[in-house]
C-alpha cells in the first residue's frame, strides 16, 4: 500500500500550481542595520496560476517581519533574461493595509539595489510621513498582483533569476531597502533573500523520504 500511496501523493503535489517563496532575511552592504524583528523581514511569493488565469503569475509581497516604524521604500526582482521586462503587466492589485500602491518600474538590468545587483523590476513605495506614515508599506502589510506577459505565458520560474552583478555582494534573486531601522529609527538596511523550493521539488524530497522509510520497514 505504501508503494501505491507514494506515487499518488507525489502526483497530487505536482498537480498543484508551482510556486517559489523568497525569504528576505539577510542584510548586505556596509552600514546596513538589520530590522529589529525576527527574520524573514520580507517575503516574496511567485505562484503559477491555472484555469482562466493560465499563463499568468501571482506575485505577493509581504512585510512579514517588520516591526515598529520600519517600512519598505524599494523592492527589486528579476525576470528571465530571454524575456523583455517591459512586456510585463501588473494588475488586479489586492492589498492588506493602508499603504499606497507602489510605482512599478520595468527595464532590463536598469535598477541597482544599493551596494550590488542590477534588477529588471523595481517597486517604489511611498516614503511620506503624512498621517503618521499611513501610506508606507510597513509591518503586517501585504500586496499581490496578477502578472501577465505580452507575447506568451509565464510561470513562477520566470522570476527565478539572479540580478546582474555590480558590486562585491550579490547577485540576488530579490532585494529590498528598509528604512527606519535601528534603536532610534534613523538607520536603514539593504536585505536579500534565498529561494525555497516549489511543489515539484518538495514532492521529490517527500517521495525520497517516504521510499526510504518504506525500505527500512521491510
Could you walk me through the main structural features you see in this protein, from its secondary elements to its overall organization?
It contains 2 helices and 11 strands. The protein has a single domain, classed as Immunoglobulin-like (Sandwich), CATH 2.60.40. Strand 10 (174-181) and strand 11 form a beta hairpin. With 218 residues, the chain is mostly beta strands. The longest helix is centred in the last third of the chain and has 19 residues, at 199-217. Strands 1, 2, 3, 4, 5, 6, 7, 8, 9, 10 and 11 form an 11-stranded antiparallel beta sheet that branches. Helix 1 (2-14) packs antiparallel against helix 2 (199-217). The chain has helices at 2-14, 199-217, and strands at 19-28, 42-48, 57-62, 71-77, 88-96, 103-112, 118-124, 137-138, 142-149, 174-181, 187-196.
Task: Describe the structure concisely for a colleague.
By secondary structure, the protein is mostly beta strands. It has two helices and eleven strands.
Amino acid at each position: 500500500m505504501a508503494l501505491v500511496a507514494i506515487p499518488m501523493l507525489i502526483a497530487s503535489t505536482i498537480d498543484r500550481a508551482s510556486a517559489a517563496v523568497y525569504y528576505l532575511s539577510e542584510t548586505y552592504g556596509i552600514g546596513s542595520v538589520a530590522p529589529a524583528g525576527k527574520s524573514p523581514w520580507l517575503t516574496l511569493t511567485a505562484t503559477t496560476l491555472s484555469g482562466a488565469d493560465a499563463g499568468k503569475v501571482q506575485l505577493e509581497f509581504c512585510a512579514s517581519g517588520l516591526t515598529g516604524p520600519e517600512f519598505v521604500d524599494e523592492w527589486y526582482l528579476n525576470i528571465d533574461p530571454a524575456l523583455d521586462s517591459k512586456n510585463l503587466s501588473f494588475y488586479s492589485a489586492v492589498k492588506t493595509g493602508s499603504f499606497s500602491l507602489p510605482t512599478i518600474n520595468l527595464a532590463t538590468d536598469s535598477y541597482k539595489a544599493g551596494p550590488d545587483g542590477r534588477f529588471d523590476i523595481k517597486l517604489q513605495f511611498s516614503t511620506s510621513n503624512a498621517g503618521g506614515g499611513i501610506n508606507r508599506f510597513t509591518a503586517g502589510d501585504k500586496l499581490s498582483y496578477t502578472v501577465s506577459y505580452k507575447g506568451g505565458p509565464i510561470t513562477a520560474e520566470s522570476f527565478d533569476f539572479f540580478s546582474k552583478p555590480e558590486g562585491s555582494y550579490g547577485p540576488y534573486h530579490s532585494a529590498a531597502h528598509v528604512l527606519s531601522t535601528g534603536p532610534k529609527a534613523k538607520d536603514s538596511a539593504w536585505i536579500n533573500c534565498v529561494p525555497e523550493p516549489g511543489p515539484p521539488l518538495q514532492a521529490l524530497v517527500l517521495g525520497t523520504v517516504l521510499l526510504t522509510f518504506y525500505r527500512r520497514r521491510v
